[in-house]
Specification:
CATH topology of the largest domain in chain A: Creatine Amidinohydrolase
Order of helices and strands of chain A: HEHEEHEHEHEHHHEEEEHHEEEEEEEE
Structural class of chain A: alpha+beta
CATH class of the largest domain in chain A: Alpha Beta
Strand content of chain A: 15-25%
Shape of chain A: globular
Oligomer: homodimer
Number of domains of chain A: 2
CATH architecture of the largest domain in chain A: Alpha-Beta Complex
Largest sheet of chain A: 6 strands, mixed
Number of strands of chain A: 18
Radius of gyration of chain A: 23 Å
CATH superfamily of the largest domain in chain A: Creatinase/methionine aminopeptidase superfamily
């Protein structure tokens, strides 16, 4: 795949979702399972197009080797499921949580599974559901595993989602000036991204839409997972680090840049350059067959050899899909090879207290012979110094 | 408590959080537990004031009978935890997910628990965490149980949160006209609520802030859990049903009303009246000592006796706290008595396909001798007909 795949905004077809279900069943055969039970709302969305917010009323999807999957649904939500699901489902409703004896979800659910059979369950399943699940239970993340390799349809949706964040990030760089507060950035940029989302996808499901935009100014950009206060202000110089993330009707993507307002402090030039080169090294290794743990190891070694080993605090990258953080991982200890149609972030970082953080991140598709960046913003230092 | 409790916007004190921890330890003694492990981000927030978004890098809080609680934290997040936690914590960091062998969370975590001891774990704990938890494990929801009875501080925060939604709901009624689309309502009303939140609480933690405002027009208000499309429009007449929900820096509250634009269709008058009277009946039963399952049963009976039994699709109410849906429940089958300082919604509903939905909801505090509505909006039919 050398050309950029086409952007898609349409809902998935029944064929697309039935293909995914077929893949689940293929893996069930390999693992010799009679049933697979999904509780994780992300996995249920992946197979049905129905998204739920997890609360005390559980939704459970029960897949057998053949036939129509069964779904345990609170009575109140039946028409909600029907309005969004693009898949045949056989509903088993329960009344409420809690319900009178005999009418609870845990009265309805176990009857759907033969207690002598082998039942695959997700490692994310809560104990309260696990305890009520009959059968010989085997913990295995079949759907999570399948989600690692994207279908062409998913890739088209991610291409579109990247258009949304690319537009958002452009605005970040346009409006960033010393003194601009976080809340102004957040409000304007998320507004732009939300507007584009609803213009492009008028029936977008807001349960699986999110938009975030924030900038870490140099006084705390060394600390990438602190949450900025809403009145924190952009500063002179840098490094500032932006995060623009969106889940666009079910497709999560990100773009992040290290940039400067007016001037680049002398002491920031080397770490920027090392981060930039570490990133180039990572990209040079992005092709099918490369071991993902080894890529992270090599990138860390490069940063360490250049004097910043003490300032690495996270892996080189993570998978993206329905969520913003998921398998696969560019992380030491993750022993798996890159394959075409994986979607990952590439974001080696250097974080120096007193100076700031240095990180670019992109949403990147692994192709047959390398990679393709789906997100887009300036990358070079001279393009990332905003004139005041 | 007859006067309305004072509104609070300040962060909790160390004493407040240490009181909550003491309560956990008291219950640990009762249940003869040596450790209690919390994974649920809501429970960790309740005890520490630190909020996290769940992802593949787990946070785990380990409480012993005495001493400083231990927290397993990804390296990347340590300063984030420190910046928000209002409690002494002993940190055990792990590198990343995944990490090289020996450096993963599941290498660090089990060492903190003596394998011969009794360990309480939450029923919401994912299997992947449960499997790595040593000791004799007992599933018990101690923190969820404690959260049912609010402290005076929590009540003060909920009083404030209700001011936010009351303001939001006032705007809903002000701007609702036939033809106004959902997205306009959503944007304006959530904007007003978010602005008030950050004005009142400049250091609000946005991980535990949410704002939602939507109206179900009569063409689908019979279906309360369908998610409205963003271009759906308000209609003539009614019943329209509003939902205004906010989590205001960690305190979730709701207000909902059935209202009409211009005119009340003749056939809507009786169901409105029955809903209104069912609600009055529920309120008349709200006092310490009343069985919560029985209240729901009586309310259902009243609605059924008045001819709408087939149109009940949910319980009379649910608890509110950090989340918008939690224990306790006004639901048949929930055998528990009301106690002072519970915070619940009261919202019996009638849903008639082809006519629409009828439901008011309020956030209500149980007091020593009855109840106090913390949310506020017009309730009577004639106050809820908006002149065009």
């Amino acid at each position: 795949m050398t050309d950029k795949p086409k952007s898609i905004t349409a809902s998935p077809t029944r064929e697309e979702l039935s293909y995914r279900l077929g893949n689940v069943r293929d893996l069930m055969k390999v693992e010799n399972l009679d049933y697979y039970v999904s509780f994780d709302p992300v996995n249920i969305y992946y197979l049905t197009n129905f998204a739920n917010n997890v609360h005390e009323r559980p939704f459970l999807l029960i897949i057998e080797r053949e036939g129509i999957p069964k779904m345990v649904v609170p009575l109140l939500e039946k028409s909600h499921v029907e309005s969004r699901a693009i898949a045949d489902l056989e509903y088993s409703n329960y009344y409420e949580f809690p319900s009178p004896p005999g009418k609870n979800w845990y009265d309805v659910y176990p009857k759907l599974i033969d207690k002598d059979k082998k039942v695959g369950v997700e490692s994310a399943m809560p104990l309260r559901i696990y305890e009520k699940t009959p059968g010989v239970k085997i913990v295995t993340d079949i759907i999570d595993e399948l989600r690692i390799i994207k279908t062409d349809y998913e890739i088209g949706r991610s291409v579109h989602a990247c258009k949304v964040i690319n537009k958002g990030h452009k605005e970040v760089l346009k409006m960033c000036r010393p003194g601009v507060p976080e809340f102004a950035l957040y409000q304007k940029v998320t507004g732009i991204m939300t507007s584009k989302t609803i213009q492009d996808i008028p029936n977008a499901n807001f349960i699986v839409c999110k938009a975030t935009a924030a900038v870490w100014p140099p006084s705390f950009s060394h600390d990438p997972h602190i949450i900025p206060k809403i009145f924190a202000e952009m500063e002179n110089g840098g490094p500032h680090v932006s995060i623009v993330y969106a889940q666009v009707d079910g497709y999560g993507v990100e773009i992040e840049r290290t940039f400067f307002l007016g001037e680049v402090p002398q002491e920031a030039k080397k770490p920027f350059e090392v981060m930039y080169q570490a990133r180039e090294l990572a990209y040079s290794l992005l092709k099918p067959g490369e071991n993902m743990g080894e890529i992270d190891k090599k990138v860390r070694k490069f940063i360490t050899d250049n004097g910043y080993g003490d300032y690495i605090i996270h892996r080189t990258g993570h998978g993206l899909g329905i969520t913003g953080h998921e398998a696969p991982f560019l992380a030491e200890g993750y022993d798996r090879k890159l394959e075409p149609n994986m979607l990952i972030s590439v974001e080696p970082g250097i974080y120096i207290p007193g100076l700031g953080g240095f990180r670019h991140s992109d949403t990147v598709l692994i192709t047959e012979d390398g990679y393709l960046k789906l997100s887009k913003a300036p990358e070079k230092l001279d393009e990332l110094v905003i004139e005041l």
